[in-house]
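Record type: monomer structure entry
Structure origin: computed from sequence
Chain ID: A
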Amino acid sequence: MAHPDEEVWAGMLRDALAGDEIRYRSFLEAITPPLRRLVSVRAGGMGTAECEDILQDTLLAIHLKRHTWRVDEPVRPWLFAIARYKIVDAFRARGRRITIDIADFAETLPAPAQEDPTEAGDIARVIAHLDSRSAQIVRAIGLEGAGIAETGARLGMSEGAVRVALHRGLRKLAALRRSMLE
């Protein structure tokens, strides 16, 4: 059974294809509300702005492909097929992400991560494997955040010597870590 608007739409589109701009404008105005409903139902979960974008893409595709409609075929299935393809394209472009307002879940989110209380002891045990000078440099720069120049001045070393000692100390710590993992 044909939709009540089918013959009206088909007549308007036939006239539009024959060059009647007024009938073409009437055709677009007539098909926009049902296409908008289709898009909002099928693209559930997308926002109003995204649905309007899909509707505009659909109307543009109809305009660009209007010559592909066969005048002996119903208009409605042709229109709705284009709309469905545009909805699928929008979902593909969007990916599988879902936009959710984080404020809705603020009470159920875990608390911010706190420092591991055993971490300081682990670091101290590992640094203890270094010679005294390297351990001081690694602690000062790596843990306390001191600069190369400041550490050099505190230990009576040149900046170059501090860099070399830091590099050697870190290399030894990396080797210790590898041996612990094996």
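Annotation 1: The helical segments are 6-17, 21-42, 48-65, 75-94, 119-127, 132-143, 148-155, 159-181.
Annotation 2: The longest helix spans residues 159-181.
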